[in-house]
Every structure is written in structure tokens, then in C-alpha cells.
Batch of 4 targets.
Target 1
Amino acid sequence: MKLLLVEDEKRMAQALSELLRQENYDVDTCSDGPSGLEAARGTPYDMIILDVMLPGMDGFQIARTLRREKIRTPILMLTARSGLDDTVAGLDSGADDYLTKPFMAKELFARLRALARRNLPSGDGTLSFGDIVLEAGTASLVCTAAGQSVRLSEKEYRLLEYLIANQGQILTREQLAVRIWGFDHEAEYNNVEVYLSFTRKKLAFVGSQTAIKAVRGIGYELRYEHV
């Protein structure tokens, strides 16, 4: 699970990063508000741990900006302030949870597990975007408008699942390769292109107006092109 930690206290950032990596999180760190915002915009993280008091831009501003830009990555906000007004301000800014310093590591991990569960597909095992639904139980792609469905291979399913989970964001070929083949992958980039082509053909087969679009020089995004 890929996680962004935005924390300006160097010792705290180092300690948290080490603890998280011991729990098998893949952690990127930033030490100020502007760089944290840029990282959150540019990479589809599974979760963000965001300190409130940051140089350049505070955590409230970052959370509000991300939500305004339709970036839905779960945010756990950290603060040394324990007042109710601060908690409310954090949640109102778009954070999903709020943790007051100092805290125990086991509480942090429990909060992260809870956020991860919230980000799972719906209780019936489906994910949806535009006119398509992914059914986990049957690994099927369904077009709700045309009433057609088709089975997906494991890699096709994981590709569409990742694009839907990060709708509104552009994903690079490297990010797609890591998602499909894992961090130790040796897959060539043309393998990503092959599975993108397979998946596009199945979207066309079911009559969907949802498309995987290439963004020149950057990557790919999912778009619903309803007329």
C-alpha cells in the first residue's frame, strides 16, 4: 500500500516512516505544504498522513485543495492540538480521520486499517464509473446502458479497478505496471500497452462510452464520453 507522509518535524517524520515501512507500507515523505500538495496531486496514493502545522501551506489548506480538485485519497490528519474546534476544522476541510499527538503506533495503524477498509469496493463487491460496473465475484465488466457484459482476465480487471479507484487522475505507465505486476516487476512497458488494448476492446465489446484515454507524455486516465 502506497502512502504519503507530510510532516515537517524531521525526527517525527523519520520515526513514522520507519514504523510504517516495518508494517510493509511503501512511504514517500514531504516536509512542507507545497511539496506535499504537489506529491498528492501527482501520485495516486492509497492514503495520506497529513500534519496540520506545515511551512508554506497548512494541512487544512492542502486537504481543501485536494477535495476541490476531486482527489479522493483518504486523509489522516495529525495535530498537536486536541481542541474540538480543531478536530471539526480538520474534518470539515476534507480529512477522513484526525489523530492527536502524541499517539501510540498501534492506534495509528488501527486508524490506517480503518481508512483502507473505507476505500474498498462496495459491500456487494462492485466498482462503478460512468456506464460501467466491475463485478468482483465474477470478474465481469458490465455496461449498464447497453445491458452487455464480458469476463475480464485478472490483469484486465486489476487495470480497470485501479483506473476507477483513481478516477480523475492521470496514471503513468510505471504506476500501472506496478499495480498489475507488483513492485519487483520486470514487465516491459509495451506489456502495459498490450493490456490497455485488450481492455479497450472489451469496453467497446459491451458498448460502453467509458474510454481509457492517453494523455501525451504523461499517462492514462478513465473518461466517460456520454453524448
Note: The chain has a mean pLDDT of 85.
Target 2
Amino acid sequence: MTADTGLALYGRTAARGSAQVLESYSTSFRLSSRLCAPAVRTDLAAIYALVRVADEIVDGCAAGAGLSSSQCREVLDGLEQEVEAALRSGYSANLVVHAFAATGRATGIGPELTRPFFASMRRDLAPLVFTDEDELDEYVHGSAEVVGLMCLAAFRRGMEPEPVRDERWDRGAVALGSAFQRVNFLRDLGEDAEGLGRRYFPGIDPHRFTDAERDRILDGIDAELAIADSVIGELPGSSRRAVAAAHLLYADLSARLRRTPARALVSQRIRVPAWRKATLLVRAVLRSEDAR
């Protein structure tokens, strides 16, 4: 069997499959990732596709197929086991898992990041109401911060370790992932509560949500965005523009959320218009050029 018809062909097919998942499910992440170098873009698609597949298990696709909650958990547990096995062996019969494992093995992503992710996904298999900030922080770490660290692993692929720099970049990736997740929680406040039985923000009743509560949450988000912003200019040119674009998009969303009455956030999802996204992409490119 030649390289062109064996594992290499299978790997390219798996990568294309993950890219198709990204193409089908995301607008913002897809647009931002297009600003990356091709190799980084491939890694990001592999990470996104696995995260999306897991997310769909807990957000209704599996239930829509008639699976019970316990069966959904079995599917999610099975996916995690497949991921860990593929990270060890370099192969999976599941194309999305195979692509993720190829990226993971090349960039150093391992169970220390995938296990917290799957743990948070399991929390979403049943209705949940967080009662304290520690619960929320633990969930956000698994659902978003580790995904930021996975993406960062792709950004610095092939780079020599520099402990001080790497700690600074890790802090920025964690802050950005957390900010993204918390913005999305605010955008989906009503739908999460009514459709999925989830209340992520402790002490927040979506039906009595106040402007003061909105601003308190957004103050924390903006502080995290500032931490992330402080390191974006240091990132490799192969990824800097994409991260800058994503940061600008979520900073814009944060500002729009702050301008929206809290009572309205329960019934409408705040979005960034397409023309504004295009403007932010241009700004990200120009900003990244200035940082060179």
C-alpha cells in the first residue's frame, strides 16, 4: 500500500472532514481561522470538530435520535475513550477523532486537557443550576479554557519552550476562552434556561435579570479580554491575526450586550452583523501588521 493510498490519504480525508464540520457549524470561528497559516488552520479545524461533536451529543442531537440521558452519557463516554486511545495509537476509525489525535500528538495535547473538557460536557447531560462561582469556574475551565489551551498548542507548534513566555501565553489563552464562554452564556441566557434547563450564572434568575447583574458579569468578561489582549501581539504571525479577530469580535459582542437592556437579553440573541464582522477582520489584519 503506497503512502498516497494508506494512512496519509486517510489522514487527509479526516482533516477535510473536520474542516467540513467547521464550515457547516461556525461562522465566526471559521472566518477567524481563515486568517491563520494553512497548517494552523488544519489543527484548529480538528480541535473545533471534536468539540462540536461532543457538544452536539449533550445539546440535543443524540436525544433527537431517541437516546435517553443515560445512553447519551454512554455515547459521550465512548467518544472520550476513543480520543484517549487515538492519542496513544495515532489512529481511529472515527474520522473526527483521527484528525484530532493527529493534531494532539503533533502539538502535545493530551488527557490533561481532554479530560476536563469531557467532564464539563457530562455536566450538560442533565439540567443544571450552578449555586456558587467555584462550580461555574470549574465548568468554564473544562468547557472553554482548556479549548483555548488546545488552540494555543497549535499556535506554538514546533516552537522551543520558553517557560516565562509560555506561562504568559497560557494565562492569555485561558482568559480568552473564559471570556468567550461567558459572553455566549449571556447571549443564550433565556434559551439555556427555558430550552435546556441550564442556569450557569449563580444567583441569576433570567426572568428577573437586572442591568446591574449584567454589568457585573460583563466587567469580569472585559477584564479577561484585557488579559488576553496583552499577549496577542506576541503570538506567531501564523496565528496572530486570527486571535486578534476573535478578540475584537467578542469585545464588540460585550459592548453590544452592555448596551442591551438586561430584560431584553432573555428573549433575543445579540449578534454582530456581517458588515461589522468584515470590518473587524480588516482591523485585526492591520493591528497584527502593526505588532510585527
Note: Residues 50 and 228 are 24 Å apart (CA to CA).
Target 3
Amino acid sequence: MKSFSNTYIFVFASVMVILVAAILSSAAMLLQPLQQKNIETEQKRNILASIDIESSASDAGELYDKYILESFVLDSRGGVREGVDAFYVNMKEELGKPDEEKNLPVFVGLPDDGSKKYVVPVRGTGLWGPIYGYISLENDFTTVSGTTFGHDGETPGLGAEITTGWFQDQFKGKKIFDSEGSFISIDVVKGRSDPSSLNQVDGISGSTLTSVGLENMLRDCLKLYEAYFKNQMKKIQ
């Protein structure tokens, strides 16, 4: 059996490590544009889903351009912030900033029913990790038109139910302001909600922490838009 010196083994191992690292680095660089495109496509699909537009990976870009009329970014006082692209705002980063520095994206959709929808992103914490999504409002700025939620690690059959149709459909028609114009958000109720309530939906059985996390997510994120929503509501009164 042929033996090799320690120096040979060391040099050979070093060359192999460098070679493998170079290959992996090159692969990552080559795949990065594709990965970014996939992320953007999924984001477009989720925004469209919140206004009840079904899309696929192949037609999401076309449908987004057709149904999303405009997008803009707000500051915490409800004013439009120039020079920031709403589509590329990272809500995870924004929520870590002081309120006066936050960039708050808004997407304006016009589905086939001819009524404008105002879509905003939401992000919070579930039982095992981040939960996130989009919520759209009718052009009265208080009635929920639709939602789409996602998660990074909730339990299948329990917390992961936030992604299902039965759960998300409950939000349609609910109000985030009461009849006097006070912000109330949406309550995710343990057990059965009051069918006559303006702002209650059923929680997920056996997944209290995820339900609470989603309720907190909606309240905390929608509250950031309160000034803008109220300003717009005054204009249509």
C-alpha cells in the first residue's frame, strides 16, 4: 500500500477544501438571481391572493401588472415617503425600527369587480417562528376584503391552519374600525366567535399561541397604518 507524507495529505486536503468552496460559491452566485426571482414571484402571488386573484408561478408577473395599479410607501404619520419602492420593503427589518423610521408599503389593486382594494403586509410571531401575510381592505378603509397568511414552522393540522381557506375566509367583511371610527383590529377568539361581531373570527382549536400571535400581528401592524386609513376615511365621508 502506497503511503503519503503528512505534507502531501495536508496540501491535498487544503486544495480540495478550496476547490469545493469555490464550486459552492460559484453555484450560489449563479442561483441567486433565480432564487430572488422565485421570492418575488411568490410575493406577487400572495399580494394577488389577498384580493382574490388566483395566480401561478408562470402568470403571477402578468397578473400583478394587470391588477395592481400602484404601490407606495407611507411614514408613521400617514404621509407618502418618496424614493422607496414598496415591493422591496422588508417588513422584518422595518418592524425593528423606531416608528418614525418605518417604511410602510401599500399596494392598490383593482380586481374585476371594479372596486379598489388596499393591500398592506403584516408580520408577527407564531408558536415556532415567524408568521406573515397580506390583508386587503375595501375602499372604505375599514372592511376586510381578503387575507393571505404564511408561516415558517407552525404545526401541521394546528397552527399551520392559518394558511387554509376556512380560516382566512372568516376575515372577509370584518371591520378594523368600529362605528365611531375607533381602531379595533380583528380578534381571533378561542372557541366560537360571536357571528354578529364586527371584528371577531374563530381561533384554531388546539393552537392558542398561534391564534394569539396572529391576532397580535394584525393589531400591531394595522395600527401602524391607522393615521393613513383615518385620513382616507375622512376624504370619503
Note: The chain has one domain: 46-236.
Target 4
Amino acid sequence: MSVLGFGKPNVERLAALNKIDQLVKAANYKRDPAVREAARAALLTKMDICIQTLQAKHLPHVYAAREALIIIGPPARDRLIFILKEGHVHRRQDAAYVLGEMRDEEAVPALALAMHHPDDLLRKISVEALAKIGGPEAIEILKAACLDHDPHVARAAGKALNNLGVPKA
């Protein structure tokens, strides 16, 4: 887990090298809570890099950035909500996905707005995010999504409601 892959992670070195994937691993390091906390703090300082990496074409970097943003939590949530409202459609899709993984109810209003976007995939990802978050407001949005003009979105909403134990209508 160190820069060389052996022993305790060297969080300062990983942060200096912008090794987001390794910082994510260090943030989940089970043997030392101090390492976990240092890695989480380092990831917070790398939030802008993580946000920018969502645009990358190299998928392992995108996946690491997503994981890092989930670990960062509420400070990243606020940026992701902004992206969900204003960003390029592919960045909006990533933002919706990460917000769902965060399972934070504060993201529900932004995800509700995303349900009005013309991109079918963004609406489907938003449905999946709402299903992960749950709660009364998300359930109402999912019920409305069952009537979406895209059958994939409507099916995903129906499946989400079923998994939440809620009838469609």
C-alpha cells in the first residue's frame, strides 16, 4: 500500500504524487485508523482533481475518482449537485451515479431536476440513484418516472419501486 506496494501506506507521498486510486485504498486501510483519516483528509484536498478526472477517458481513473468523491462525502456532494444541474451530459451522468452511491437525501431535489433532462441515460442513472437514496420524496419521483417515455427509464423506475417494496401506482 505504500508507494512501492508494501507495508503501511505513505499518505503524504501518495498525495504528493496525486495517486487518487492509492489514496482511496489507504482511506479503507483497516490496520491503522490514523492512515484512514490522513487519506480521507488528503482526498479532500484532491477534490478538484477528482472532479476533473470524471471527464477522463481512462476508466480506471474515472472509477477511482468516483470512489474518492464518495469518501469525501458532503463537500463533494455540493459540487456534484452543481455539476448535475449545469455540467456536460456525461459529467451529469457521473455526478448522478456518485450521488446515488453517497445515498444522501440532500441530492434528491437535484436528481428530481435531472429527471427532466432529455438524455435518457441520465434519467435512468438518476432513477437508480434515487432508488439507492430512498425516502418519501425519492419514491414519489420514482412513481412519476414509471411513466417516462423511454421504456428503459420506466422499467428501471418500476424495478426500483419493487425493490423498495412500493407499489407503482
Note: The chain has a mean pLDDT of 93.
